[in-house]
UniProtKB/TrEMBL annotation:
GO molecular function: ATP binding; ATP hydrolysis activity
Protein name from the UniProt record: ABC transporter ATP-binding protein
Entry annotated with the keyword ATP-binding: yes
Organism this protein belongs to: Arthrobacter jiangjiafuii
Claim: Zinc is one of the keywords in the record: no
Matching SUPFAM superfamilies: P-loop containing nucleoside triphosphate hydrolases
Organism superkingdom: Bacteria
Keywords from the named record: ATP-binding, Nucleotide-binding, Transport
Coiled coil: none
Stretches assigned to the ABC transporter domain: 9-239
Pfam families (alphabetical): ABC_tran
């Protein structure tokens, strides 16, 4: 298959255990090229573990992940050139300013210094981080850290973006700006995969979605198909609740 015909992300049999616990249980998933793909699931479902393996940050016990035709382990450089990643708990060079982080990572990725400077300026502007020009990352708020992480994911203009909870702790104005950027990237043919707990956001942005529970994909496909007649939240609860057996609530709150 030509690279142009390859899915953005082709995951086959990804499997990860921690001790006796199976965190990701032989997951197969295709993210079509040019799609805005949402990965949802309850806490501990395995989303972060799956995405970390899919982008080559965590070595799976079994399975493969291929980004636009490049295997993230056997062809890592080619795969990672095409990938922009916002991982969970991103480690940052803490004692640099936002602009220094972008300059450092841009040069590390081999981008032309003038391109790095221009993109860093634009990214700091759209992420509303220019006012914190002199602040070191170590002193950033949670939302600011998320935004500089997103900026580093966008810096080299990758074909596929994989974002773990990108909107968590981000203020509404920055979130709107970010949504517009992501929508524009997809409109231009790039692919975005994001995980989120916010169903309304996934519904608003994504054209395809996968629901994960207990390490497995329990539904996936076009948003309209997974959502059915109701909302995504209703479909999510209907899928997850029977698997979990439901909860009775707090006994001492019963009247
Ligand atoms: N490093 C680790 N060591 C041991 N167990 C782990 C580790 N990382 C993840 N797990 C376990 O794997 C399971 C899946 O975790 P993961 O973080 O992938 O879930 P998640 O769907 O991203 O959850 P959340 O929505 O709460 O972020 C959980 O039961 C978790 O405790």
């Amino acid at each position: 298959m030509n690279d142009v015909d390859q899915p953005a992300l082709a995951i086959r049999g990804l499997y990860k255990t921690y001790g006796s616990q199976v965190s990701v249980d032989r997951v197969d998933l295709d993210v079509p090229r040019g799609s805005f793909f949402g990965l949802v699931g309850p806490n501990g479902a395995g989303k972060t573990t799956l995405l970390s393996m899919a982008v080559g940050l965590l070595r799976p016990d079994a399975g493969t992940s291929v980004v636009l035709g490049a295997d993230v382990w056997s062809d890592g450089l080619r795969a990672k050139t095409q990938l922009g990643v916002l991982p969970d708990g991103l480690a940052m060079p803490e004692f640099l300013t936002g602009r220094e982080v972008l300059t450092f990572l841009g040069r590390l990725r081999g981008l032309d210094p003038t391109v790095v400077d221009a993109r860093a300026q634009e990214l700091l502007e759209v992420m509303d981080l220019l006012e914190a020009e002199r602040t070191l990352v170590v002193d950033y708020s949670t939302g600011m850290r998320k935004k500089i992480g997103l900026a580093t994911a966008l810096l080299h203009d990758p074909g596929v973006l994989v974002l773990d909870e990108p909107f968590e702790a981000v203020d509404p104005v920055s979130a709107l700006m970010l949504k517009r950027i992501l929508v524009r990237l997809v409109a231009q043919g790039r692919s975005v995969v994001l995980s989120s707990h916010v169903m309304a956001l996934v519904e608003e942005l994504c054209d395809a979605v996968a629901v994960m529970s207990d390490g497995r994909i329990v539904a996936s496909g076009p948003l309209a198909q997974v959502r059915g007649e109701g909302t995504l939240e209703e479909a999510f609860v209907a899928l997850i609740d029977p698997l979990r057996g439901g909860a009775e609530g707090l006994s001492w709150l019963e009247t």
